[in-house]
Amino acid sequence: MKRIVLTGGGTAGHVTPNIALLPRLRDAGYEIFYIGSTDGIEKKLIQSQDIPYYGISSGKLRRYFDLKNFTDPFRVMKGFAQASGLMKQLKPDVVFSKGGFVSVPVVMAAKRRHIPVICHESDLTPGLANKLSMPSATKVCCNFPETMKYLPEGKAVLTGCPIRRELMQGSRAAALAMTGFSKDKPVLMVMGGSLGAASVNQAVRNALPALLERWQIIHLCGKGKLDEALTGTNGYLQYEYVQKELADLFALCDLVISRAGANAICELLALRKPALLIPLSAKASRGDQILNARSFERQGFSKVLEEEDLTQETLLNAVSDLAKHQKDYIKAMESCPQSDAVETILGLLDAVSVS
Hints:
elongated; 13 strands; 14 helices; single chain
């Protein structure tokens, strides 16, 4: 039986693609272990998957001044020593890294013991953690054609993002029963991420009377961001977040309004859901969502509305245009070659494993 160590953490986006791989890894007979931080979000997410979890010390390597810059290198060194010990103990045949700073000492420890590593970069341009890991990797997977030029020659593989199997198995009938919506009127789903997006939420609510003339709306608005005044509005349902029901809601919706996190938009691509992407502004991020969104726009998968241009009027116009060309977006997504990232990555893992 082959052994694999999965690693990645810091945000859910560094964990959910690893979770998406689990069913096929089990089917293929892999014994699976996970190395993450001692108290990061990945610990809770992975422990619910019933696989062994090992926590190591982790520090963030920042590009800006912070007092923690003086102490975090020692945490990274400690993490490397712990990861080295785990490599000796677990004896994996291969390591798969989804990124985040906890993955760096794991990848480097694997290289030291001559264990092959496959990294995966979600965003269009590599983050710092993956930049540090790439020299130690055997292969580097990515989601966007434009990313290939940023990756080491001979290592880059365009795979797309692993998508959770259950998302592909949603029931439209179950969603209709859950929502009470009519089956004869189209559904627009609004997603702001697990924490919500205040500007997107506000723009949608400002445009609600006009939107409801044509659409039934499912609004995933984020924890603590429900608008009680809108509870009971006919054709409009708001949830802080959903978990098991998400696949069913995807099966029901026709169009989506979303942020442009890499994992989220790759799920939309796999599900063939045309989307209006409203990326997080460069003022609030390193600009990766803007690059992700523009790539999807160039490939004909989505329409983009910059947050700085977001108003009631621009939102309504963008949704109208998206609906008008809905079939064109679906056709472009159906022709995308990165249709089965899980199988592609599994093939790479099998090919590089040391046993």
